[in-house]
Amino acid sequence: MRTSEGGRRAAVLGSPIGHSLSPVLHGAAYESLGLTGWAYTAVEMDEAGFPAWFAGLGPEWAGLSLTMPLKRVVIPLLASVTPTADVVGAVNTVTWTSEGAPVGANTDVHGIVQALRSTGLSKAPVGCVVGAGATAASAVAALAEMGCEHVIVQARTAARAGLPLEVAEKLGVAARVAPLDDHAAVLSADAVIVTLPGDAAGTWAGGLRESVAGPPAGSLLDVSYHPWPTQAAQWWSSAGGAAVGGFEMLLHQAAEQVRLMTGRSAPVEDMRVAGEKALASR
């Protein structure tokens, strides 16, 4: 039986980790929930050092939040993973059963779904994912949860799109690859999720702005959250579309982590206030 005397611990791990908002969000949740014996910290950790560190964790640990490059490294160290984490092939949350068995989950998908729903979108039969990395794979799974029947993956080359296409196949979603300048695909989608890093996303948004005159049909989620608004979000909103940023995704994935780690419903609005205050000071 997994037991612990005294306080409980949790942490976010990755490299680099100094920019993470997770300690602010989780700390606000603990304060609101009255979990005075809980502590949540940031731990700089690379792939090489993680297995030994993980093996040394004691019963005081309630959960881990994992960022890159650890979302795949952790999987062989776990007793089980949730169906969503298995499909996406990435774990961003670790908790332990009462018997001490480590379990992996993926709350990024939940965060993406909630962010899109915050724009008023309830269903997305046609989705467009801009980029083809690990976040793009989670984006495809999120779109599937929202009833997506066809997804367009925009990538520099078709060879780069293997990961999101694999997820689409597992979930029975028809998929095709399109170049990054296929703006017609973007404008016709019910939901567009931009997963490109900052500079690349800015270039993509610039091309969209220069070549398109008509309004977008659906909602846009740009997973970047600082600075905000991004170029893509600025154009989308000015053209009459609904746009939301990565903070909303981050907030809801963290709230789901709080629920998994503490067994309590997360105080989302208290977490939002703390996160927005921290971002405003950057």
TrEMBL record:
Residues 128-194 form the Quinate/shikimate 5-dehydrogenase/glutamyl-tRNA reductase domain. This is shikimate dehydrogenase (NADP(+)). Keywords: Amino-acid biosynthesis, Aromatic amino acid biosynthesis, Oxidoreductase. Residues 246-272 form the SDH C-terminal domain. InterPro entries: Aminoacid_DH-like_N_sf (IPR046346), NAD(P)-bd_dom_sf (IPR036291), SDH_C (IPR041121), Shikimate_DH-bd_N (IPR013708), Shikimate_DH_fam (IPR022893), Shikm_DH/Glu-tRNA_Rdtase (IPR006151). The keyword Oxidoreductase applies. Its EC number is 1.1.1.25. It comes from Kineosporia succinea. SUPFAM superfamilies: Aminoacid dehydrogenase-like, N-terminal domain, NAD(P)-binding Rossmann-fold domains. Pathway: Metabolic intermediate biosynthesis; chorismate biosynthesis; chorismate from D-erythrose 4-phosphate and phosphoenolpyruvate: step 4/7. Pfam families: SDH_C, Shikimate_DH, Shikimate_dh_N. It catalyses: shikimate + NADP(+) = 3-dehydroshikimate + NADPH + H(+). GO terms for molecular function: shikimate 3-dehydrogenase (NADP+) activity. Residues 12-94 form the Shikimate dehydrogenase substrate binding N-terminal domain. The keyword ATP-binding does not apply.
